[in-house]
Write a structure and sequence with these properties.
Blueprint lengths: L13 H10 L8 H23 L10 H13 L3 H7 L6 H35 L2 E4 L2 H6 L12 E6 L4 H10 L2 E6 L4 E5 L17 E5 L3 E3 L4 E3 L1 H4 L7 E3 L4 H16 L6 H11 L4 H12 L10 H11 L4 H9 L3 H7 L26 H12 L3 H13 L1 H4 L2 H4 L2 H10 L5 H12 L3
Helix pairs in contact: 1-2, 1-20, 2-3, 3-20, 4-5, 5-7, 9-10, 9-11, 10-12, 12-13
């Protein structure tokens, strides 16, 4: 059934749906039929590309022009365009091949910019006696898990002790980065004249954000998990420090993935990171993962099971004993969900806004009720951050949904399925290149 203001074209082919998406880019004007077909295409194409990245085949997908355009959006959403450029064993249409090659080139050029910035940060931190740790992508590149041009980096994440936070902020200010906003996880710094982001995927000229952390933690969804003790170097030196171990890096990747999963925002790139790192780990490294996890406040490391289960499903990269150990402390519902949930259902390839996207992470019936109440009646702080994000990151949180009150959101959601703007935006940008 179509929502208010929707249109139904006489041509009901997938390509006609694609033309409709381009012509009617406002999410609240799109027909529910077109959105349903897009959702199914996103799901199917996501699973196909995930399989190709993990285990490349020689058979080219038999997709329509509109589906190849959606495939470009999927690759951009999941951060895998440059990886696919090297991994695929078949030749796609010229537009697809050109897109992957361009994305790889932009990723390599952007990486050089980020490396230059990291060298400046390292030099400044050394001279000023500030100990920092380069997190996630920076660490994976420094460890040789990726080479330039393989893995995109959306921003630079740095960890600093709280006692040195003010000095670290001054260091970034000296490099032309101004404090923009703060969340419960980190402070965000950008240049005064950030470049506008490209409409689709990576671009060498996109502005570089710096996220400064004093803790490594996630809310899953209302139960905070903090692994800062594991990630902070035991004997840091001035400048950029590595993670204490591969185990610490893997635990951070898993926790970050867990935070994404609670909102169905996992990226295939995150699973690929886990698989690449896991492929370099010895039995001793895996034992250290279990030992380090036992030293955190959440000693049973239940939160690692979903990301480990997904990574193993696609890449076969996790030892059985490790997966079993992570599963022991996980809530029964969470274990059941992630023994069958796919990447497409756990990511932005799931088109629809979910009312309770992370409820399976709750540890009890009471926790489920508390989570549902927090989603139904968000706190003033949540509403404030939601509004600020809509202003600061319109390409992520834009569309009319951002401006709606909580009451109107509920009414809209009850009336018809609502698509996620952060999914529609790259799809429409890709389709515009075709139609």
């Amino acid at each position: 059934m179509n929502g208010p203001g929707s249109t139904v074209a006489a041509d009901t082919s997938p390509n006609a749906d694609a033309r409709g998406l381009v012509a009617q880019s406002a999410a609240d004007r799109l027909s529910q039929r077109s959105l349903r077909r897009l959702h199914l295409a996103l799901q199917r194409i996501t699973e196909s590309l995930a399989g190709e990245l993990a285990r490349p085949s020689v058979v080219r997908p038999d997709w329509l022009a509109s589906e190849w355009a959606v495939a470009r959006a999927v690759a951009a959403i999941h951060g895998i365009s440059s990886l696919l450029a090297d991994a695929l064993r078949w030749q796609g249409p010229p537009g697809w091949t050109r897109f992957l090659a361009e994305q790889k080139a932009h990723t390599a050029q952007r990486f050089q910019r980020i490396q230059q910035l990291l060298r400046l940060i390292d030099s400044g931190a050394r001279s000023q006696g500030i100990a920092l740790t380069g997190l996630k992508g920076a660490a994976l590149h420094a460890a040789g898990i990726y080479v330039a041009g393989e893995r995109p980096m959306a921003d630079v994440d740095l960890l600093v002790r709280e006692a040195q936070l003010a000095r670290a902020a001054q260091l970034l200010a000296g490099l032309g980065y101004r404090h923009r906003y703060q969340t419960w996880k980190h402070q965000v710094f950008e240049r005064d004249d950030p470049d506008a982001p490209a409409a689709l995927g990576e671009h060498a000229g996109n502005g570089i954000k710096i996220e400064l952390h004093c803790h490594v933690r996630e809310a899953l969804p209302l139960r905070a998990v903090d692994i800062s003790r594991v990630v902070f170097p035991p004997r840091p030196i001035a400048g950029l420090n590595p993670y204490p171990s591969k185990a610490a890096l893997l635990l951070h990747l898993l926790l970050h993935a867990a935070g994404s999963l609670t909102y169905r925002q996992l990226r295939l790139l995150q699973l690929h990171d886990v698989a690449r790192l896991a492929g370099t780990m010895t039995d001793e490294d895996w034992e250290q993962v279990r030992g380090d996890a036992a030293g955190t406040a959440e000693a049973d490391w239940w939160w690692a099971f979903p990301a480990l289960a997904l990574a193993d499903r696609y890449y076969g990269c996790v030892p059985r004993r490790v997966l079993a150990a992570a599963a022991r402390g996980a809530p029964w519902v969470l274990r059941q969900v992630y023994r069958r949930r796919t990447l497409a259902g756990a990511s932005l390839s799931h088109l629809w806004i979910s009312a309770l996207p992370g409820i399976e992470w709750s540890h009890s019936s009471l926790a489920m009720l508390q989570y549902a109440a927090a989603r139904l009646l968000p706190s003033s702080e949540t509403l404030r951050q939601r509004k600020a994000l809509g202003i600061l990151q319109p390409h992520v949180s834009g569309g009319t949904w951002t401006q709606l009150s909580q009451g109107r959101r509920i009414l809209r959601w009850l009336g018809s399925r609502q698509p996620r703007h952060e999914t529609l935006q790259p799809v429409i940008a890709s389709l515009r290149a075709v139609y």
